[in-house]
Design brief:
The complex is a heterodimer of chains A (about 425) and B (about 260).
Chain A: H1 2-14, H2 19-37, H3 48-61, H4 65-77, E1 85-87, H5 89-95, H6 101-104, E2 111-116, E3 119-125, H7 130-133, E4 141-145, E5 148-149, H8 150-159, H9 165-175, E6 183-189, E7 195-201, E8 208-212, E9 215-220, E10 222-227, E11 238-243, H10 249-261, E12 269-272, H11 282-288, E13 298-303, E14 308-312, E15 324-328, H12 335-345, E16 350-353, E17 363-367, E18 373-377, E19 380-383, E20 398-399, H13 404-408, H14 413-428
Parallel strand pairs in A: 11-12, 12-15, 15-16, 16-20
Antiparallel strand pairs in A: 1-18, 2-3, 4-5, 4-6, 6-7, 8-9, 10-11, 13-14, 13-19, 17-18
Helix pairs in contact in A: 2-3, 3-4, 8-9, 11-12
Chain B: H1 3-11, H2 39-49, H3 53-58, E1 61-70, E2 75-84, E3 88-95, E4 99-106, E5 109-114, E6 118-121, H4 124-135, H5 142-145, E7 148-157, E8 160-168, E9 175-180, E10 186-193, E11 200-212, E12 215-225, E13 228-239, H6 252-262
Antiparallel strand pairs in B: 1-2, 1-13, 2-3, 3-4, 4-5, 5-6, 7-8, 8-9, 9-10, 10-11, 11-12, 12-13
The chains are: A alpha+beta (about 425), B alpha+beta (about 260).
Amino acid sequence: MHRLLVFLAIPLWAQAPPNHQRDLDSFEKVWTTIRDKHWEKSPGGLDWQAIHAEFRPKVEKAQNIDEVRGLLTEMLGRLHQTHFGILPATVYEEVGVLGDADAIGEGSSGIDLRMLEGQAVVTRVDPGSSAERAGVKPGWSVKLANGVNLQAAASELEADPSIPEIISTRVLLGRISGPVGGKTQITFLDEAGAEAKRELALAAPRGRMASFGNLPDTPVWFESKLIDAASAGSKGPAGYVRFNYFLDLQRVMEGFGGAVKACQNCSGMIIDLRGNPGGIGAMAMGMAGYFLDQPGLRLGTMYLRDAQLNFAVNPRFPSFAGPLAILLDACSASTSEIFAGGLQDLHRARVFGSRSAAAALPSVIDRLPNGDGFQYAVGNYISEGGKPLEGVGVTPDSEVRLTRAGLLAGHDAVVEAALGWIETEKAAK
Amino acid sequence: MNREKALRRLLSGAFFAALFAACVFLPAGPALSEDTPTAEAILDRFVEVTGGKAAYQQRKSEVVHGTVEFSAMGLKGSMVEYFEEPGKFYMAMDLAGVGKIESGLIDGVAWENSVLQGARVKTGEEQAQALREAAMNSFDHWREVYPKAEVAGEEQVDGELCYKVVLTPAEGKPESMYFEKKSGLMRKTTVVAASQLGDLVAESISKEYRRFGDILAPAKVTERVAGQEFTLTIDSMEANQEIPAEKFAFPDEVKALLARQKK
């Protein structure tokens, strides 16, 4: 389908109107979208028609695309709301945020990356993957990927505050990916700082392909285990659950319930949502039910144009009443934030790691006639504690960051901090 | 069978509503003319044109099979419903990728259960709504359910001029029903439905009336709630079937919940 759309787009672009008309069309598209899709009938409390009357003549007089972008940004800025913005077309060209998905491909070498200390650092190597077979270790940094200087790219991306870390990370992951069945050439810097060149086979991504309505099939994996207390420097076993999406509803929900059931005698539970970009919002409510025994609680409220939706939680049994730690990082978004933020607000969980992606709203990135990107949100979500998550994110109770040195030494500082807290809680009781 | 009521039951399990916004716009209608019938006459006419009071009163149970589709989301599934007087009800939807979503009513206990949200027992306005809907399975009971009914105007629904009748239940918010002037058939309902997610404005459009036994009922009902639109298509509706008691029994999850609540 993606290829078909690209094919169809070619003649449209070839027949594009003159630049000024495209800029005017872009202005109209932005203004109309906000008028029709913003969750407030008077977006931002503004007279949106008056905004049109004010800005349209200015756009008509604009001399170049930079002026148009400035005007659109100023107009969106009047909303004083996050996740409304214009992404210059050059951003797409430079970092490939949206385009060229086919060229990037879905093949995986089994490596997960994060931006740490200005570098693209391996944070996880999937068991059985080509990366594991090639001896790649967490803590190694990626210097070159298929001829692209990823070290420089990571540094530039990290220095640009306009690009969220979740996007930067996806860009970097895209650079080490490719078509399934292909190979990726990566030059790492190992624990000694020496170059380690590897050619890694790209396999289908980890997980089982899951369908949900019109969403593209997505590989979903779920894992749960009891962390061996001794090896983690802890005094008692803790349950550990991690999954990459809030999708594959039946399997993941049943796996989650099964993990809770198997953990009735655990000293605590850790739900690791690092890197989890979200999925079906209602799964946050369903999962939270295993940790709350009081009816009538909710994680938060979503405000849409004509509805106010409570993210209500039903207590579920068998539940888990012990210490609950949730792990987040800058790539934890949407449903992950709703789940973590709600349970944090209800004082039921302690959050470890780093601030989440602050992308808890259903927001859309669309392309404008002039080639720029336009991001807009269609709803507002307020966590139960009264805080918006959008643009703010979930702030951990214990800020713990991975370091390259720690990873090289075989430590996951975030998991260890959570385990330490669980032990403290257990000891206190 | 009142299909709009059946669809409204889906709301209680409709987590889909958590995803998108709704926009329901109800334009004001023209003033009432002197020959506008009373609400009572409009409702009684609906009973008459869909089969008559005797036909409704003969229906003591009902088994419905159909399909449900959330077209915008690309979700489809099956639906089954059992109803038996007095006040026994069970409905299950099974959607690909979502699993089974069940709801029911027995001995005055209204419940729902799903893989996604677990089990819960409805209370307050939600429970009252479930009881009311079970009673309204047979539309000729409307006087017992709605102490107040009045005509509020005339409006176009799908190109047909309809009487708008506002019915006020003993407990709960007023509901609007739209009856086609020409045929007397119900074409639309709008309600503020109580749900766990909050009060949601729900609009149902009834189409393709056809005969199911002695009763004329819509074979297709499209519901819009909180930005979501889904369509229920009835494949079969059989009256006075012998329904095994276990069809109305509480699922294990609901039994466990009720047992905990008694402690």
